[in-house]
Amino acid sequence: MTPRWKKVASDLFQQRSRSVLVVLSIATGVFAVGAVAGTYDSLKEGLTSVYAKGVPAHARIFFLEPFPLDLHETVRRFPGIADAEARRSVDVRMVGDEETSKGLQLTAILDFKDIRIDRVRPVSGEWPPKQDEVLLERSSLESSGLKIGDTITVETPLRRKRTLRIAGTVHDPGVPPSFFTGRLHGTVSMDTIEALGEPPLPDQLLLRVKMPNPTRKDVEKVVKAVRARLEDSGLTVVWNWIPPPGQHPAKEPITSLLFILTVLGVVVLLLSGFLLFNTITAILTQQTRQIGIMKSIGATTAQIAELYVVLVLAYCTLAVLVAVPTGFVTARFAAESTAGMLNLDLPEFGVPPWILGSQVALGFLVPLLAALPPIIRASRITVREALAFYGLPSAASSPRFIDVLARKVRIITRPALLSLRNAFRRRLRLGLTLATLTTGGAIFMAVLSTRASMTATLEQALSYWAYDVEVQFIRPYRADRVKEEILRVPGVAAVETWGFSAAQLMKDWQGTEESRVFMLAPPAETQMLRPTLVEGRWLRKDDEASVVINTEVLRNNPDVKVGDHVLLRVGGHRTTWRVVGMVRGVLSGPWVYVNRPYHALVAREGGRAASVQIVTTEKSPEFLAALSQRLEDHLRAEGYQVSSVENATQWRSRVEGQFNVITSFLIAMALLMALVGALALAGTMGINVLERVKEIGVIRAVGASTPTVMGIFVLEGMTVGLLSYLIAMVLSLPLAYLMSYQVGVTFTRAPFDFTWSAQGAGGWLVLVMILSVLASLWPAWNAARISVREVLAME
Amino acid sequence: MRNYVTPAGMFPALRGVDLDIAAGEFVAIVGKSGSGKSTLINMMTAIDKPTSGEVWINGTAVHALSENQAAIWRGTTVGIVFQFFQLLPTLSVVDNLVLPMDFCNRFKPEEREKRALELLTIVGLEDHARKLPTELSGGQQQRAAIARALANDPPILCADEPTGNLDSRTADAIFSLFTDMASRGKTIIMVTHDRDLASRVGRAVLVADGLIVEDLPGGQQLRSAS
């Protein structure tokens, strides 16, 4: 190796802490790009092509009564139909000894050797299930706490009990994970359905249309024709469901989330460019004299520039070597945990060449672009300028207010004054450091405010269900009797009966387009519902065919407005309603609210009710769980057919689980931002120490102790930290507002209630101060180790 | 002639200087600080340029060289020795010597180190070749710097206060090294404020207030009050 490359190598390896810092700052940006892009790529595959391998149904049609075993074979020959399969579902309840019973949906597959649509894949244990065996969906096994080999007792709606053995697990890609929905799913054979006392016949059709990439409209057209033919032959369709064709239902929100993360990743990369510009400028400033000497012994401008370009390339290489693997490990972790939450299978995790390529390209290009201006400037310096260079501009250029401050505030000691002045000596460097630290801080605070807004919105959404326990019956009972019965259970404070129906919102009566909504009919003056009106008004006592919709109805019916008339099919009856208001729905599904008496009329309920809402005297989770059990036991003993008892703790944890997915991504990004900010500060402080070695020697020579020398630098770091905090505070407000608006619209179709997070602001203050101290401690320690002799020996 | 712009206005560092130096001469340029002697030598090494006037060395119009041309010309024509030695701190002594050959692509790559070691032997540092500059004493560092100035075998050696930072015994040793080089046929131009040293060279030029006030052959004491 020739001496000039030895010089590059020694610059690289002898100034180890500086090299680590530069490498880390490049690596952070490259890492962020790799982590986000890798997550995106893997999930995109999982949400589209891997999902498509399960041959998801284009449509499911549910019938009122079971139909003959060979119907789906006839349907396969219908025009436009590529394939059809028939299945049977029975909702049973698992009756446990201790825990509260849980709902379990059993789906029977007709022929396990010929699964064509919504392919259920065996995961562990036996396959296919024999009579009295159930294969639990893998996420259901996990959330139920059961093991393969356990036996469970289930009870059908007709109160038949039977013991089933859990023989294995399956993956059903069409089933959302049960910790989200709170429901359990299992696959059985038709024999088991028969053993449960139900007719061994299918009640639903799964369809695939004959088109390579059908749109929703295409599918609707085919389904409409199929329905018409089947209804002509005397079958009654309850409803049909058309998921977004060709993609996992969660694709849209996940893509939006990843887009936000991509934007943040690019910000991190740009900030790491700033960081590098600072560091390279400092390295070159520090080496000005050396550049002068090299020029005096014959080095040309190009030779000097080449030396530093190679140095930067070496930093880049090390950074890419660090960032690429860590980025992929992180991407893999993020993608897998998200996939776990969506019950999704991912492709074999590999390194897509385009991500690797862009990481390498960015990892070299951004640093080079950032470093070239200072390198060109430094290598053009003349020998005379270089040899006449004696360090920093004088402290006289520090802002006036510091001197004024020093005169006014007598407690500011001379060393402290030195810190304050030092902080302002290199204006460009200070500016870039502040920009990085401020961006990090502003995003950190904005993310926490978004989370706070999300929590507040969630809190409000949950408090909107102002009851504590809900009991649903298999069939309606006389409302006044049910109320009386429930009020006898100790711990119950108040009871209301609400009407409930599953309904279909139709575009027209021909069934062109329809989507499932849940119709709820509380008493108009209810105390157990506190909806947030987005538009229009709430129901009034005298309202008849009036309906209030929630914002989630818009997901499938974006055109519906307040004042419109809508068609709803309720229990086979066609009804027309006027939309009088819209309330916010938060991850609750599409709900419509109608007046209790009018609903009773439409649903032919009379004075009966299938759903009871209860307010309890105490609200603790333990109390609610115990009360739920007492209620269930009591009602059963009285002969009521209970379908489900659910309490507030259960649905709260379910909804919170969904929100946590979003926040954990955002928090991870915020922490990365904080890291970049800290690196920027550490870099600047390290550079400041290197640049001021001589000054430190002088301070030492006039009697500064080690704590004084360290204190000067730590205080300087804290000054920068505090300054960035003040700017970040101001910036974080509009940023937080925008972010919580956008995240709200993306995930709940309505902006969140904006809440400024005092925790975020306080937390960042503490964090930025800790980071400032930590970032300046190492450089300060280096500074304190410099001896007077060393400094004087320098020249 | 060279003008400097200073906060006090235009300041001519040198005025109407006319100096001819023949090949093989050992010339001392003497003067107080601020007299213009460093500016004079910097123009000879193309580190600085005259505002008006010309500098011709060995047929090259040095004043007309661009910064880059100057670097290449300097690398092969002039060896420079600084007051503060100016060795690269992260390279060993021998590597500091090979560096100029490397930059100017002089000698075959495999011969460069051998040559550097020979030069170190001449200055008496053969045992310190692998050390870093900071492990050497000031006098040793200056010897290394002189050896480096000779690396590309330039005909001219320029030294700006080479003994200014050394004690008198070490200064004497360094001085005799220069005399030795002169006897090997190098043209040596040395800036110094030490009148005793100046009296021991072939020719002494006294600069004061930007003017050459005396130009004497060797062996004579400069008389002017300075």
The chain pair forming the largest interface, with residue counts per chain, is:
A-B, 29 and 34 residues
Cα-based radius of gyration of chain A, to the nearest Å: 34 Å
- Strand content of chain B is 15-25%
Distance between the termini of chain A: 29 Å
Strand order of the largest sheet of chain A: 2-3-8-5-7-6
Query: Helix proportion of residues of chain B, in percent?
Result: 25-40%
Strand content of chain A: 15-25%
- How many DSSP helices of chain B? 7
State mean pLDDT of chain B (0 to 100 scale): 82
Mean pLDDT of chain A, rounded to whole units?
Answer: 83
Q: From the alpha-carbon coordinates, what is the Rg of chain B to the nearest angstrom? A: 17 Å
**N-to-C SSE string of chain B, H for helix and E for strand:** EEEHEEHEHHHEHEHEE
Number of strands of chain B: 10
Sheet of most strands of chain B: 6 strands, mixed
pLDDT below 50 for ≥5 consecutive residues: which ranges of chain B?
3-9
Enumerate how many helices of chain A there are, as a single number.
24
Structural class of chain B: alpha/beta
Structural class label of chain A: alpha+beta
| Overall form of chain B | globular
Largest sheet of chain A: 6 strands, mixed, barrel
Strand order of the largest sheet of chain B: 6-7-8-3-9-10
Task: Outline the structure in words.
The complex is a heterodimer of chains A (795) and B (226). With 795 residues, chain A is α+β, with helices and mostly antiparallel strands. Chain A contains 24 helices and 20 strands. In chain A, strand 16 and strand 17 form a beta hairpin. Chain B has 226 residues and is an alpha/beta fold. Helix content of chain B is 35%, strand content 21%. Chain B has helices at residues 37-44, 67-77, 93-104, 109-122, 138-149, 168-183, 195-199, and strands at 2-6, 9-14, 26-30, 56-57, 60-61, 78-81, 156-160, 187-192, 203-208, 211-217. A six-stranded mixed β-sheet of chain B has the order 6-7-8-3-9-10, with helices on both faces. In chain B, strands 1-2 form a two-stranded antiparallel ribbon. A two-stranded antiparallel ribbon of chain B has the order 4-5. In chain B, strand 1 (2-6) and strand 2 form a beta hairpin. In chain B, helix 3 (93-104) packs across helix 4, helix 3 (93-104) runs parallel beside helix 5 and helix 4 crosses helix 5 (138-149). Chain B is globular, with a radius of gyration of 17 Å. The two termini of chain B are 21 Å apart.
